[in-house]
Every structure is written in structure tokens, then in C-alpha cells.
Write a structure and sequence with these properties.
Distance between the termini: 56 Å
Oligomer: single chain
Largest sheet: 7 strands, antiparallel
Helix content: 40-55%
Strand content: 5-15%
Order of helices and strands: EHHEHEEEEHEHHHEEHH
Structural class: alpha+beta
Length: 327
């Protein structure tokens, strides 16, 4: 039996949004924001409008903020309603009911069983990630799902193992965290109205920015941790880099993209602020490779100039944006 919320989607010819195009400094951001970009795109809506929240990212100590679009913003902009799904029975049973009603399900998943991660996680390591279920066929053992930068399909053993289908109930197995996504009251705003609504969110999220430039704290922590990164090797470094450099760079890549789309605020250009945030995105992209080489070789690395440039870009970008917003 097949149940599908958005039957027009086909993984074979799906074209992702330009925010996941090769022109982006960071093609993939993080698993949660990536699936939301693609779902909003697949619904025929504009993902650029939801990005002001990226201004609030901060260095949290052992990681940068794992940034997610606030669900309140999704409802305000697009009319998308998201609520936690109580997983009190097998997830496939929930999927059959809710997908048939036109609702999608966002859920945690093990990337080991996701063939779109071939070359990284697929059949190599167990990694928690987020996918959005759209199309489930129990008889064909087929799943159509959003993950990372596109819409994909899987089948067969991957389907059975992903959902633990056919296995006896294990009371010790904790239920997955999942969310129910209702799209029955979508708001398709005219472009001008969408920009105005997003501009209001831009001001709100600018007020949530870190109280002080987070780059110097990040630089100081990196200088202390580099010997440990080198001692533990590349596998440990890749996990560290995902939580730190990648989240920082990808967030400011999206912040720059949003400001370029928004273009101006009450007549004041946002281009200069966008360019400063793009400097951070590019700086992180260069840094992640430099540190990988230093970890692999064990050689010293003076990253202070790179961090200094990104700190200057953060100050300049926030100052220019603040002037544009009149704060």
C-alpha cells in the first residue's frame, strides 16, 4: 500500500534549490536546515525568506550553534504548521496515516541505511541525521524522502532496516524524535509581501545576535585544541570540524544569501553587510582545509590571521546591518 503527501515528486528528476547549488560556498549546511530548504522549495515557496535566523548563531564553547529555522517563522512566512509527533507505535504506521492525509513527517534516521550518503556514512558508520518522509510503499518497500540537498529514494533492505520493519517489538528501543508537518494552510504571499514579512523577522533575529563578537572566543579555543586534534587524528577532526567550522561557515553563507535576496531595508542597501558575511563563509571554507592538512601532517598552524579576518568581517557585517536596520 502506497501513501504519499506530495505525489508529484520523483527522485529521478528532482532538481534542488539554488541554495544547494555549486555557487554556494557551502553546498550542504546541516541536515535539518537542508531538508527544510528543499521542502519549502518543493512546495513552490521561496526558502530565502526563512533565513534571518542565521544571524543568531554563536560559538557555544565546543561547537557553533546547530542552526535551525524556528518553527514560528515557518508558520509566519508560509503557513506551515509543525508539531512534535508522539511516536507511540511503529513509525511506519504513523507514516501510513499521516502521509495519506497530506502531512509529512520529519524524523531522526540512521545514515547507515541512506544510500544518498554513499561514500561517507552509507553502510560505513552509524550517524544520526534528519530526513522528511514523503512517499511510503510498504509492498514495494520503497521510501521517497528529503535528505541534505535533494529528494531521494531507497528500497529493499535499506527500507527494512531503516524502519526495523518485520522485526519483533523491542521495548528497550527508544522511539525516534519526529515532527508532523502540516501544509494544508499554506500562505503563498506575493513577493513584496514576503519580503516585508521576512524583513520583520530580520530585525527580530538581528536583536538576537551574540552580545559580543564570537570569533575571538573561537580562535582562542582552537589554539588550545589544535594539539588534541592532531593527537586524535582525522576522524576526530572531521567530527570537530562539522560542529564548529562548518556550522559557522554555512550559517553565514545563508545569511549572506538572504541579505542579497532582501537587497535593501527601508531604502538602505544590504549588499555591503552581505559581502562581509560572505567573507566569513569563504574564510571558514579555506580554514577547514588548512586545519585538515595540519592535523594530518602534525605540523604547527598559525590560524590567527584567518580568525582575525573573520572577526573583522563579523564586526563590519553586524555594524553595517545595524545601520541599515536603524539600530
Amino acid at each position: 500500500m502506497r501513501t504519499c503527501a506530495l505525489p508529484h515528486l520523483d527522485a529521478a528528476d528532482y532538481r534542488g534549490h539554488e541554495l544547494h547549488g555549486e555557487q554556494q560556498a557551502w553546498v550542504e549546511k546541516n541536515c535539518y536546515v537542508d531538508v527544510w530548504i528543499e521542502l519549502v522549495h518543493a512546495l513552490g515557496l521561496n526558502p530565502y525568506a526563512m533565513l534571518p535566523f542565521t544571524l543568531g548563531v554563536d560559538f557555544e564553547g565546543d561547537q557553533w550553534t546547530f542552526f535551525k529555522p524556528p518553527l514560528r517563522d515557518m508558520h509566519t512566512l508560509y503557513g506551515i504548521d509543525v508539531q512534535e509527533l508522539t511516536v507511540w507505535r511503529p513509525l511506519l504506521e504513523h507514516a501510513q496515516e499521516h502521509l495519506a492525509a497530506g502531512k509529512l513527517i520529519s524524523t531522526e534516521a540512521d545514515a547507515w541505511w541512506l544510500p544518498d550518503t554513499a561514500g561517507t556514512d552509507y553502510r560505513q558508520q552509524h550517524t544520526k541525521t534528519t530526513i522528511i518522509l514523503n512517499d511510503v510503499d510498504l509492498q514495494a518497500e520503497h521510501l521517497g524522502y528529503f535528505h541534505n540537498a535533494a529528494y531521494h529514494a531507497l528500497a529493499g533492505d535499506d527500507f527494512r532496516r531503516l524502519f526495523r520493519a518485520g522485526e519483533p517489538h523491542d521495548p528497550a528501543f527508544l522511539p525516534l524524535f519526529a515532527e508532523l508537518i502540516r501544509c494544508d494552510r499554506l500562505r503563498r504571499r506575493p513577493d513584496g509581501d514576503l519580503r516585508d514579512t521576512s524583513a520583520t523577522l530580520l530585525r527580530e533575529h538581528f536583536e538576537r545576535r551574540p552580545a559580543a563578537n564570537p570569533m575571538p572566543r573561537f580562535a582562542e579555543r582552537f589554539a588550545r585544541e589544535l594539539p588534541q586534534l592532531q593527537a586524535r587524528g582525522l576522524a576526530y577532526y572531521h567530527a570537530w570540524a562539522f560542529a564548529t567550522i562548518r556550522q559557522c561557515g554555512a550559517a553565514f553563507d545563508l545569511a549572506a544569501a538572504h541579505l542579497r535576496w532582501q537587497r535593501s531595508f527601508e531604502g538602505t542597501s544590504l549588499t555591503e553587510a552581505a559581502e562581509e558575511f560572505a567573507r566569513i563563509a569563504q574564510g571558514c571554507k579555506a580554514l577547514i582545509l588548512k586545519v585538515a592538512r595540519a592535523v594530518n601532517s602534525g605540523r604547527p598552524l598559525d590560524a590567527a590571521p584567518a580568525f582575525g579576518e573573520m572577526a573583522s568581517a563579523w564586526d563590519a557585517g553586524m555594524a553595517r546591518l545595524g545601520r541599515a536596520l536603524g539600530t
